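Quick review question:
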């Protein structure tokens, strides 16, 4: 049974963190350096008491309104987040209640980062193919800013908060084709928040600094930039190749490549390494930053708004885990 994306909407928090504000805090940066290297001019930051659930509700309601979707038709909720409201209950159950969805609706969370949207599409397609659900609400919602130390100038330039809501159904605007997925847990400690869960339940309240002066603490997000970059350069070209192979396509068959919007430097490097022409490679991070699992759906929304997407669109998500996933959307 085929599965399609029927609609996408997204939500960005009101608070905006601009490059000018970051430079006022970290004068060793310049506005031009951040914009040119990272490719981001501003990012949206969730309010103090604004959670992944709050943003998921806002994105979902926007989806229902914008695409005139009857919420009574939703029969499964998938919520991707690494910043849940609680250890338990699952945030997807709370979302079902907040959205006033039917109590016959299935709901679950899954914990993934930048590959989360592609993984979510695979789960949704499986539910539809198995005749378990007919209309799956896939929500990606992340408040990574709450994981970042206030003095971490590196990660604060990159990450923004956002939520995106996507409806996957038996009919729609883009057919979801075959998947290539992968995992390598050996890289787990290169992108991690160590304390707070049951392995290390107590916060250390200790902060050291790396050679660039960035704070390093088990209590906050740690990213080994050079290791993440090396992983990406090895995994993503292979991911593109395998995604094309499982769909019996070549690069020439792809009309647009939409990758996880990590940062401009990394994306430029990947585009050149994979030999993708600039006009087929989409960038969408300037005004929202790296929003983790929401970067791809936000990019798809904006690309469709700008140019009315048609043909084959290859998606590639990659990051924390390590995990990676690719698929192709066939737009009508």
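Suggested answer, residue by residue:
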């Amino acid at each position: 049974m085929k599965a399609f994306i029927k609609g996408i909407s997204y939500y960005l928090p009101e608070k905006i963190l601009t490059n000018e504000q970051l430079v006022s805090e970290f004068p060793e940066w310049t506005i031009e350096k951040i914009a040119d290297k990272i490719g981001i001019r501003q990012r949206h930051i969730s309010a103090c008491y604004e959670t992944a659930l709050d943003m998921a509700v806002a994105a979902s309601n926007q989806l229902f309104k914008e695409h005139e979707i009857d919420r009574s038709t939703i029969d499964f909720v998938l919520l991707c987040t690494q910043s849940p409201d609680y250890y338990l209950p699952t945030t997807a159950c709370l979302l079902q209640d907040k959205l006033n969805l039917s109590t016959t609706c299935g709901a679950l969370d899954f914990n993934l980062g930048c590959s989360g949207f592609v993984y979510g599409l695979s789960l949704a397609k499986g539910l539809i193919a198995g005749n378990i659900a007919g209309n799956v609400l896939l929500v990606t919602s992340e408040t990574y800013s709450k994981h970042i130390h206030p003095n971490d100038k590196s990660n604060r330039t990159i990450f923004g908060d956002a939520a995106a809501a996507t409806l996957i159904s038996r009919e729609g605007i883009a057919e979801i084709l075959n998947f290539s997925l992968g995992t390598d847990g050996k890289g787990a400690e290169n992108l991690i928040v160590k304390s707070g869960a049951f392995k290390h339940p107590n916060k250390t309240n200790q902060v050291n600094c790396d050679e660039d002066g960035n704070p390093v603490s088990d209590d906050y997000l740690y990213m080994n930039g050079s290791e993440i970059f090396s992983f990406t350069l090895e995994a993503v070209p292979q991911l593109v190749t395998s995604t094309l192979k499982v769909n019996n396509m070549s690069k020439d068959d792809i009309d647009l490549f939409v990758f996880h919007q990590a940062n401009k430097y990394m994306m430029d490097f990947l585009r050149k390494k994979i030999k993708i022409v600039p006009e087929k490679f989409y960038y969408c991070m300037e005004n929202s930053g790296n929003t983790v699992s929401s970067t791809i759906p936000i990019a798809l929304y904006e690309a469709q708004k700008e140019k009315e997407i048609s043909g084959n669109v290859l998606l590639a998500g990659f990051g924390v885990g390590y995990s990676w996933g690719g698929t192709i959307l066939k737009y009508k």
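Why it works: The chain has a mean pLDDT of 95. The first helix runs from residue 19 to 25.
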